[in-house]
Amino acid sequence: MKAFELLFTSDVGLMSLAVLTITLGMGAFYLRYFLKHIKDDGAAAARQAR
Fold this sequence. Notes:
The protein is mostly helical. It is built from two helices and no strands. The longest helix has 39 residues, at 11-49. The model has no long low-confidence stretch (mean pLDDT 95).
């Protein structure tokens, strides 16, 4: 419980929480971005192959 208290109350803990949030957000964004472009490129290649 001391770790959670430090995470949410100290400057270092709040900065760590901010970095984790930003990193996870960037990971989710890039995952969605790459999957969308992979799907679009696959569809374009299928149309071109006809």
